[in-house]
Amino acid sequence: DNLDKIEMRSDTFTLPTPEMMEAMVHAELGDDVYGEDVTVKRLEARAAEMLGKEAAILMPSGTMANLASIMAHCPRGSKVLVGDESDIYIYEAGGAAVCGGVMYEPVKTQADGRLDLEDLQRVFPRDPADPQFALPALLCLENPHNRMGGRVLPLSYLEEIRAFASERQIAVHMDGARIWNAAVAMGVPAAAIAQYADSVQFCLSKGLSAPIGSMVVGSEAFIGDVYRIRKMLGGGMRQAGVIAAAGLVSLNKMIERLAEDHENAKKLALGLSDIPGISCDHHAVETNIVFFRVTDPRFTWERLVEELRHKGVFVDELGHGRIRAVTHAGTSSRHIEQAVAVIKETLA
Ligand SMILES: Cc1ncc(COP(=O)(O)O)c(CN[C@H](C(=O)O)[C@H](C)O)c1O
Predict the structure, then answer these.
(1) 3-state secondary structure of 45
(2) Per residue in 103-126, pLDDT tens?
(3) How many angstroms separate the CA atoms of 285 and 257, rounded?
(4) Among 108, 271, 280, 325, which residue's CB has the most CB atoms within a 10 Å radius?
(5) How far is the CA of 73 from the centre of ligand 1 (A)?
(6) What ipTM was predicted for this assembly?
(7) CB 220 within 8 A of CB 54
(8) How far is CA 255 from the centre of its chain?
(9) What are the pocket residues of ligand 1 if the criterion is a CB atom closer than 6 Å to any ligand atom?
């Protein structure tokens, strides 16, 4: 087998940098359940400031970050409007229903990651006083959108959604797991994106290369509610400064370099689009996610994924037979060239 493994299944595979390991070893620690871990407090203050929100809280995962946010926004028996291709709806084990007693209302996701306002409007009962209908309490957006290929939502759309939600007195939560990729791709501060949402969750553990963690940002009151919900979910952490120290390196050192991941994703998509038997729309690549299909009748996606794995190229199917490749700090430009060559040779 090929010695030089090219890991493109996800940016969740990123490893902490030596600088992060150093910071973790020397982190100033305390009991964070008592609010006494200064490194966690420093990270939370930094995250709130960077996203232009009053407060922030460190979470063990993006899944718990989304769940605690939904539970803080949504009373039991209410509805959360989610995209039918969203991580919240597909990959988070139904947590809002199981733990929060909240009903998912899946709304069709457009090719660019948007939820159509008319589709959203159809979810609202004509008469909110009618006891037959569960009432929507929250609208969740995913930005960038993973399964729609890392597409970034335009600020004009976010503005429309903000107005739509405010008119109907529901809140907006943004699953911004890769919001820093969106900010770099758009050339705007992340705060310019976050301003349209009441709460945002983002991952330190993906493209930002921290080993663990996500963060929720929002108002003081909202984050206060999330603190209690996190404890109830078992997410209250003790000397979490070990995690936060890496997170501080993520926010201070790992954002600008995301542009390299985007360049590598475009390079990969261009290379793939030239291979007979592979279809890949390189124009659709905006961040670090590339989707492609195998059209060569000799191959199912299962067979291609398996053969590539044996040759050291790791990708995976992520819905509707499409194969996803994700670039990140562990995939160099040379890795991309090698991956294209391996896929070309496999399809020859
Ligand atoms: C948009 C978004 N929001 C939330 C999450 C959940 O984050 P974690 O709970 O895995 O930290 C993910 C993880 N996404 C993972 C990946 O892309 O490999 C898998 C699909 O769950 C995500 O992509």
Answers:
(1) helix
(2) 999 999 999 999 999 999 999 999
(3) 17
(4) 325
(5) 21
(6) 0.99
(7) yes
(8) 15
(9) 10, 12, 61-63, 87, 91, 142, 146, 175, 177, 203, 205, 214
